[in-house]
């Protein structure tokens, strides 16, 4: 999706290259169009789990009817042409009742089906809890005869109707238990191609005159600077994209001058076999391995060497200017804080000179709607809680914070454009730190009243 000024002579020279979130592209907004900027959104995700959550995960032959964008990717094969197989795990959490359940990654199904519906060839367990080190509490194996790859409900009870996308359990699901199944899957897609595809499209629109068949670039010679941008899942994509060195184009030069991962706390799980790019927040889910911080730093808790997200671009001299911003949802629920303090949380990690970080305290994922007035009937805080991030985590008890991100994002956009296009430094980073912004857990015990606490 390309958005340009009607008169390209009025183009500002800046290209925003956006990463679609689960396949959904969007044009640049009115403010950016007012600047005369050019917008580009291009596909990267090769599975269609977000498109058809009930009936399969085949790669689509063309753009889906709902407008989502996906890559056309081959299925990996062994050298002799035979199917590639391997072990995959999926989880079912916070579910109850006699009905069958899909294996969910965030809000979408695990994009790999079992090679066989024989439950003796898989292993389903229940757990009452897990420790941070991965130790399972109260794990019990569900006998192969007590569950099925099948669709079932109260009218069609266990063992139900065979269905590779659903798990049916004899007696129904217990909401107090976590269910995890390990099974042999087949036919993985080459999902990691998404990193290269997104890079190459961005580089082509920025630098090429025409493609290999002579089709002209519609914005040729109109782009002088570019910023890569992604929100939530697509911001995680950008972190992984940069970590793996993809801001270096095939010509060895930088692809984008700036990189803006928005409300994104980790890296996406894409460049390996059986990747699950829709993943977000589980204790043992790929995408959080390796360094989450920007500059080189050791990982004493997990035994990792000194490394950083910028290592590859620093080696190739292709690092962009980076701005990241977030709210409390990313801090509390989306694994962001190891980026600040490492895995041992003993000290604040320094930010490189090419990175700015901004916090919008207490805000929800993407910010609230704003516009509330607690003194007017019906105009106060939201009456219902927010949808909690994660796999079927439910609705929050307390009202959602209505503090918006819009005004802060508008300011960041203006400063980032100036930083990329003119070298004007943006404001200093503002975010919580261990040094000077934390207190002992019992420091406020015994305070007489709120005024004493504030003192």
Account of the 3D structure:
The protein is α/β, with parallel strands linked by helices and 455 residues long. The chain has helices at residues 30-35, 193-207, 233-243, 311-316, 328-333, 338-341, 406-422, 434-437, 450-454, and strands at residues 2-3, 14-18, 38-41, 85-92, 101-102, 104-105, 108-109, 123-127, 129-130, 136-137, 140-142, 147-151, 161-169, 178-186, 225-231, 258-262, 297-299, 304-307, 321-327, 355-360. The longest helix has 17 residues, at 406-422. The strands form six sheets. A seven-stranded mixed beta sheet has the order 1-3-2-15-16-19-20, sandwiched between helices. A four-stranded antiparallel beta sheet has the order 4-14-8-11, with no helix packed on it. It has nine helices and 20 strands.
What is the strand and helix layout of this fold?
Blueprint: E1 2-3, E2 14-18, H1 30-35, E3 38-41, E4 85-92, E5 101-102, E6 104-105, E7 108-109, E8 123-127, E9 129-130, E10 136-137, E11 140-142, E12 147-151, E13 161-169, E14 178-186, H2 193-207, E15 225-231, H3 233-243, E16 258-262, E17 297-299, E18 304-307, H4 311-316, E19 321-327, H5 328-333, H6 338-341, E20 355-360, H7 406-422, H8 434-437, H9 450-454
Parallel strand pairs: 2-3, 2-15, 15-16, 16-19, 19-20
Antiparallel strand pairs: 1-3, 4-14, 5-13, 6-7, 8-11, 8-14, 9-10, 12-13, 17-18
Number of strands: 20
What class do helices, strands and sheet pairing give? alpha/beta
As laid out across the biggest beta sheet, the strand order is: 1-3-2-15-16-19-20
**CA gyration radius, whole angstroms:** 24 Å
Helicity level? 10-25%
